[in-house]
Amino acid sequence: MLSLGGKEVLLKSIATALPVYAMSCFRLTKHHCQKIMSAMSAFWWNESGDKKKIHWIAWDKLCESKANGGLGFRDVEDFNQALLAKQAWKLMNEPNCLLAKIFKGRYYAKTSFLDAGKGNRPSYAWRSIVFGRELLRKGLLKSIGKGLSSYVWVDKWIMDGEPRRPFSKQILFDVNLKALELIDQNGQWRVEMLHDLFPENEVKRILSLQIGGREDKFIWAYTKHGAYSVKSGYWLLANKEAESISNRTALEQQVLNLKCRELWQLSLCPKPAQGFSVTLEENLAFLFDAMDSHLFDAMDSQGHGAVCVRSLPWLLLNVWKNRNSILYAATQKSPTFWVSNVEEEAKIWEKVNKKAQNMKVQDSMLGDREFWCSPSPGVVKCNVHINWRNGVLQSGGAWIARDHTGNVLFHGHDAFTSSPSRLIAELRGIIWVLRSARDLHFESICIASDHEDTIEAIFSPSLWPRYRSLLEQVAALCIPFASASFEAEKIGNNLIARDIAKSVLRDGRLQSYLALGGPAWLHQRIIREASRQD
Known about the structure:
Blueprint: H1 4-15, H2 20-25, H3 30-45, H4 59-62, H5 76-93, H6 98-107, H7 124-139, E1 140-143, E2 158-159, E3 163-164, H8 191-197, H9 200-207, E4 217-220, H10 230-238, H11 241-247, H12 250-266, H13 280-292, H14 295-301, H15 306-327, H16 335-365, E5 380-387, E6 395-402, E7 408-416, H17 422-439, E8 444-449, H18 452-459, H19 468-478, E9 483-488, H20 495-506, E10 513-516, H21 523-531
Parallel strand pairs: 5-8, 8-9
Antiparallel strand pairs: 1-4, 2-3, 5-6, 6-7, 7-10
Helix pairs in contact: 5-7, 5-10, 12-15, 12-16, 14-15, 15-16, 17-19
């Protein structure tokens, strides 16, 4: 007899996977979808084929994500549509493939794929793709290039949680206005015109967009690379979290917030002067900054923060448990219970892992660490890092160039204006390094970054359409060099560049800086890394 955990694994890995090939090509009828889900539900609840049990929870509830109280099973009909949307994405982005040519000649010879109708006597395959296209339309975002084919007030080219059209500052506006008229001859936004047409917060969003030098193109709004994935398509269909939050009453939300804040206050952990933000990213950034600045250690030395110094992970976990017990179990325990639970769990973990920590310290004393890896002779290796925090704050960037012996040739650092994402900040940093290397007349370079997505995007730019403007700049800047390569570096191999980048904002080194050799305050570490190459 299988446990519930075993049944969950089988349902997710076997039962859902069996019809994937058929669902990738054709739309299953509602009857077939219901039959498949009924069989899955029976397998979940029944002990054996001849012993049936009551299904205590509706299958739709079990198909919700675990964050929303479900078990994360897939709704077959939604999964079917997400798979078919992948075929629609292929037809839209690969118009020269054989399948696209056949469908275009039959169904949309005089129009675009997105505007095509079902036609007369359509095949079942085409009707299935049209079904997948319905989902694709919900998540398409117009990426502005030259602005030739994008209508300002018609196309959805602003991402604000979901793709939407921009808000207008004026009552009357030209519906046929194209984005081309908002871009000057240098490929930059006409800022004065933007302020005339759009509200201030809309202008900020528009100025953060990367434009120029390419044709306008549709991208998928719900992946970081801009290409459609079945996972993101299914998420768009199945995600109920926003709906569940909106349906929750304001009083319930206030009670939940008060309970979590009371628990945090009893733990004696610090909090931001203006209070915690509504975004998880900013709250975690505050905690990590506090730990980096040894704020917790200072509190512990004064006898006020022993719990948070040792038990921060368990404190966060118990805040989450408290939230779930209120929302889903309708039960409430006192905050003092959760705080004592935090201390107990931390002590157990510390006792169990004390031996492992001692072994780890011994390994580090023996020198089992990661160090910088040298390039081939004749190649200059530039390690780069961008210290990106969030989409509002500035970022600090640094690079250090060394030859195959570990000798430092140059290093530089600079402060960058805010970037919407980590990947955009990293690409801007690599463009900065390439321009610096070109001005210093390096012939062969190897740029190493510890951000794997950046290197992957440079190697496969067609799979990252959201960043095509920056990727085209990277490719163009590589042309003057005899050879230019990129490699993904482990964090432990990129520590020098990381420390210099962190010092930009920490120490107020906001001006652009370039110097021979390495920074004096890292001289000994650079020598040790170079000696490891011998």
